[in-house]
């Protein structure tokens, strides 16, 4: 036993030894797994990226408000945020009144806004545009992308650091529904769950014999195993190998800051618990939904900003208090911004470019890039023209924060944005 | 010797196809010639949800041609027996107002029945009470409709009909959460059933008159003064042509064509609001005329992209996720040359070699509906209460009438991630162990499922169950493990005496079977 080195739980299980051990009874495999895992679990000082997805198309103009801009004030009759309400960043821009935490973080040198982010030939479909952001390429723009087997940008990053060792926990997303395409790699499938306490197999409760058989049956079959069966087995092995540690870390964690009672805050607090517990995860992925504000935008968006601002504030405080402030960087994006001119239903329709937010001690604080012009002559079909390709932001984070080679992951070289410290 | 003959035959055939295809319309997919139990089961599972070994054998005996006819020409078969009485919003309002008036002795409720405008005159408390009861009763009715459809999915003698209803529900996705009228959702479900293997053109026309869809994609707000692009966009992007085959300008113009297509909120019936309709000229796909909704749909049906888009979507749903462009062209031709009748295209698909190829058989990840309904169909279990099934499907990510968004369920590998694999395993274990039957028993009556088979050993039980439920050959090690875990099972002749105990053992076995990675495939 001691002669065999397992770098991760996945190797351990995939070797078949985990299955044999698991088959022997409840107490034994845990002990063995933990022994085998002791190495990589113990010392984790790697840098971490947290991605916050704002789903539905976020109206960036209502978050980083150009309050002195005539075009803004003219085009936004009901969704406008008045100059005396914004939290001023400079003479032209101010944060939404519920984003005080963003301003505080910026004053502490920990918050950056990258303005006018988008991509060429913008797609105004939620699904296509989201795929483009997730796959970090424009090929998703064509009709028959077989998205089912393509890898996301985070998945590709994980594949690139895996080499021949496997680690199911490298990329982890929190949320219900399908897992984000972004974290799916070709080798690393990415882990996801909604609530840590429910992340477990319950089919063998009070039945030890069945529990043992269950573990054995998850094994990959060597012969005639198709790609898709391999994918299912691998997903199951990853889930089974991660279930216990995730439940344990999440349940024993007691943050010193109090989180608001929102879904985003709950997700971020789980992320904080896993970071504190030293999980080997390099990229965490969480989402906040509801940004598709076609009608009656003002109230809805205010509420969203309130939730976002409060959750980010609690999370960032928590991370710093844990002593992990210097190794966690977070990044918010949305699949597109919204049209400059509001519609007849006091809302805004699908647009193009929007701001990205980055926070953590690793950022170069402040406003990056020009605020896009809202003058009619500068708009494309009524939408803000992008000035920064989102892949430039990805490249910056991958190269400067994660120490990766972005050109290999993104397929080409994108100029950096000076929003991350070296 | 024989192999070379076959090979020679194949080459000859390909040559002939190659020569002919120059002047004939594109050839149909290569027809399937061999036929066996595994293929019969594959057909039954894909063009339906599954069936017991006895049912599969019957289908096998029909031969491929007749088996396909039997499944596709389902209108010749008896309908599922269950019916449901669904009330529209107006009738429900009358019922609630009458009840409220009786309970409170307040006659002003009755005034509202005579004239809905009187609602404003009710006190705030009364009004709130009324709308709360309306909502509550509507979600109760929605649950009943879910149960009604589930019961058809599990029991209908026309499995392909219900499978196609599920397909169209995912294709023309609408969410009850947004539509907020169970009656409208029910009408839409009936539309999908009426045209299940019928005519796509008829369906596309019907969908722009369908109150649930009009509400879901905001066409009730699409009026001349303020066009709303939502329906116009999704019709082309998701329902008929796919991204890349039209311009943003086409969307704007099409939205104008659709202005005025609305519905009555009380009766949930289609209404054309002439005053809201934009009567001017519109230019769509380069053609200019005074288009309305229906002539816009006619334009879409003329586009070459449309038949291809629908053929591809049906292929992905029924076969596999990586078709060649040639395959799609061929199916699109069949669809187009039959004026968008779906049945002829399905017959070509179900009789094609590609449908029975390695790429198709056993490679599809079961949808939650497939995994649950298929299991009951494979075991021949019909006496379950479908209400409980609804909850399980919701957990697994496929609640009926609640697709995640207008794109419907994405399927494929999206059904599985580390979270969903546990949910699947757990939900299936729960269904096997706890689903109530109509005779108030808890859990599947596995003894009843298996007792006629006259098993002597646990090995026979395992082989029968894997034959019933798995499309992938189970590897020897796993098979032996299952046999071992069932070793204390007595021969079936003794089951009656120890029914309860044996049922428990068999269910335990079934739970293990459902938590196999192999069980997730079909």
Record keyword descriptors for this entry.
heterodimer, A: about 425 residues, alpha/beta, Alkaline Phosphatase, subunit A, 2 domains, nine-stranded mixed β-sheet, three-stranded antiparallel β-sheet, 13 helices, 12 strands, globular, disordered N terminus, B: about 525 residues, mainly alpha, 3 domains, two-stranded antiparallel ribbon, 4 strands
Mean pLDDT of chain B: 92
Net shape of chain A: globular
Secondary-structure element pattern of chain B, one letter each: HHHHHHHHHHHHHEEEEHHHHHHHHHHH
Low-confidence stretches of chain A: 1-43, 142-147
Strand order of the largest sheet of chain B: 1-2
Number of domains of chain B: 3
Count of DSSP H/I helices of chain A = 13
Number of E strands of chain B: 4
CATH hierarchy class name of the largest domain in chain A? Alpha Beta
Write a structural description.
The complex is a heterodimer of chains A (422) and B (522). By secondary structure, chain A is an alpha/beta fold. Chain A has 2 domains: 1-43, no CATH class; 48-410, Alkaline Phosphatase, subunit A, CATH 3.40.720. Chain A contains 13 helices and 12 strands. In chain A, helix 5 runs parallel beside helix 11. Chain A is globular. By secondary structure, chain B is mostly helical. Chain B has 3 domains: 1-72 and 316-335 and 347-362, no CATH class; 89-302, no CATH class; 368-520, no CATH class. In chain B, 57% of the residues lie in helices and 3% in strands. A two-stranded antiparallel sheet of chain B has the order 1-2. In chain B, strands 3-4 form a two-stranded antiparallel ribbon. At the A-B interface, helix 6, strand 7, helix 8 and helix 9 of A face helix 12, helix 20, helix 23 and helix 24 of B.
């Amino acid at each position: 036993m001691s002669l065999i080195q397992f770098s991760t739980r996945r190797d351990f299980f995939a070797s078949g030894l985990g299955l044999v051990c698991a088959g022997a009874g409840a107490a034994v495999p845990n002990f063995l797994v933990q022994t085998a895992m002791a190495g990589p679990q113990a010392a984790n000082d790697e840098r971490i990226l947290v991605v916050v997805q704002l789903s539905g198309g976020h109206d960036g103009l209502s978050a980083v408000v150009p309050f002195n801009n005539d075009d803004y004030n003219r085009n936004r009759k009901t969704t406008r945020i008045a100059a005396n309400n914004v939290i001023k960043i400079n003479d032209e821009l101010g944060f939404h009144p519920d984003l005080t935490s963003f301003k505080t973080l910026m004053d502490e040198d920990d918050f950056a806004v990258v303005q006018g982010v988008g991509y060429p030939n913008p797609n105004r479909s939620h699904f296509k545009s989201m795929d483009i952001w997730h796959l970090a390429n424009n090929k998703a723009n064509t009709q028959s992308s077989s998205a089912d087997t393509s890898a996301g940008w985070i998945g590709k990053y994980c594949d690139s650091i895996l080499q021949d060792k496997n680690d199911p926990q490298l990329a982890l997303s929190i949320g219900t529904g399908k897992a984000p395409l972004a974290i799916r790699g070709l080798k690393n499938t990415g882990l996801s769950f909604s609530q840590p306490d429910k992340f477990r197999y319950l089919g063998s409760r009070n039945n030890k014999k069945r529990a043992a058989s269950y573990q054995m049956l998850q094994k990959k079959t060597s012969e005639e195993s198709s790609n898709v069966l391999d994918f299912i087995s691998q997903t199951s092995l990853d889930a089974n190998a991660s279930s216990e540690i995730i439940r344990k870390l999440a349940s024993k964690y007691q943050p010193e800051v109090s989180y608001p009672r929102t879904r985003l805050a709950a997700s971020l607090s789980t992320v904080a618990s896993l970071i504190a517990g030293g999980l080997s995860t390099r990229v965490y992925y969480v989402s906040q939904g509801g940004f598709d504000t076609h009608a009656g935008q003002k109230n809805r968006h205010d509420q969203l900003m309130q939730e976002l601002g409060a959750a980010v504030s609690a999370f960032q405080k928590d991370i710093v208090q844990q002593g992990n402030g210097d190794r966690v960087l977070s990044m918010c994006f949305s699949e597109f911004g919204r049209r400059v001119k509001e519609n007849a239903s006091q809302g805004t329709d699908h647009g193009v470019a929007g701001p990205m937010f980055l926070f953590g001690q690793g950022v170069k604080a402040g406003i990056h890039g020009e605020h896009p012009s809202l003058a009619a002559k500068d708009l494309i079909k009524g939408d803000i023209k992008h000035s920064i390709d989102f892949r430039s932001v990805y490249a910056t984070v991958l190269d400067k924060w994660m120490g990766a080679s972005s050109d290999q992951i993104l397929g080409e070289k994108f100029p950096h944005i000076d929003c991350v410290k070296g | 010797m024989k192999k070379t003959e076959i090979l020679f035959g194949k080459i000859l055939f390909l040559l002939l196809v190659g020569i002919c295809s120059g002047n004939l319309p594109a050839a149909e997919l290569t027809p399937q010639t061999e036929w066996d139990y595994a293929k019969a089961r594959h057909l039954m599972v894909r063009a339906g949800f599954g069936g017991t070994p006895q049912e599969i054998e019957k289908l096998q005996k029909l031969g491929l041609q007749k088996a396909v006819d039997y499944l596709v020409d389902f209108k010749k078969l008896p309908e599922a027996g269950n019916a449901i009485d669904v009330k529209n919003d107006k009738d429900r309002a009358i019922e609630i107002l009458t009840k409220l008036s009786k309970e409170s002795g307040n006659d002003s409720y009755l005034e509202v029945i005579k004239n809905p405008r009187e609602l404003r005159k009710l006190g705030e408390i009364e009004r709130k009470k009324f709308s709360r009861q309306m909502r509550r009763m509507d979600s109760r009715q929605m649950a009943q409709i879910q149960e009604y459809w589930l019961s058809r999915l599990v029991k209908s003698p026309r499995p392909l009909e219900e499978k196609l209803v599920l397909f169209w529900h995912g294709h023309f996705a609408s969410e009850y959460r947004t539509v907020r009228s169970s009656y409208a959702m029910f009408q839409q479900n009936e539309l999908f059933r009426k045209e299940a293997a019928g005519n796509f053109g008829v369906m596309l026309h019907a969908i722009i008159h369908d109150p649930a869809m009009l509400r879901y994609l905001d066409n009730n707000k699409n009026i001349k003064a303020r066009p709303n692009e939502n329906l116009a966009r999704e019709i082309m992007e998701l329902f008929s042509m796919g991204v890349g085959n039209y311009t943003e300008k086409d969307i704007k113009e099409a939205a104008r064509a659709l202005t005025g297509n609305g519905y009555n909120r009380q009766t949930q019936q289609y209404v054309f609001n002439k005053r809201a309709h934009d009567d001017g000229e519109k230019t769509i796909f380069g053609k200019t005329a005074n288009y309305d909704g229906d002539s816009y749909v006619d334009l879409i049906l003329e586009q070459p992209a449309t038949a291809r888009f629908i053929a591809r979507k049906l292929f992905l749903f029924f076969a596999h996720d990586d078709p060649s462009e040639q395959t799609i062209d061929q199916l699109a031709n069949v669809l187009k040359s039959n004026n968008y009748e779906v049945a002829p295209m399905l017959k070509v698909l179900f009789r094609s070699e590609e449908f029975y190829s390695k790429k198709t058989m056993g490679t599809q990840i079961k949808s939650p509906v497939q995994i649950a309904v298929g299991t009951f169909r494979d075991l021949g279990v019909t006496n379950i209460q479908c209400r409980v099934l609804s909850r399980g499907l919701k957990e697994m990510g496929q609640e009926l009438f609640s697709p995640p968004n207008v794109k419907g369920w994405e399927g494929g590998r999206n059904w599985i991630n580390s979270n969903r694999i546990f949910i699947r395993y757990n939900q299936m274990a729960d269904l096997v162990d706890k689903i109530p039957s109509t005779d108030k028993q808890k859990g599947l009556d596995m003894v009843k499922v298996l007792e006629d088979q006259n098993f002597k050993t646990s090995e026979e039980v395992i082989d029968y169950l894997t034959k019933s439920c798995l499309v992938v050959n189970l590897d020897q090690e796993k098979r032996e493990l299952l046999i071992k875990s069932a070793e204390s099972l007595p021969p079936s002749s003794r089951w009656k005496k120890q029914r309860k105990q044996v049922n428990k053992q068999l269910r335990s076995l079934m739970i293990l079977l459902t938590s196999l990675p192999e069980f997730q495939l079909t």
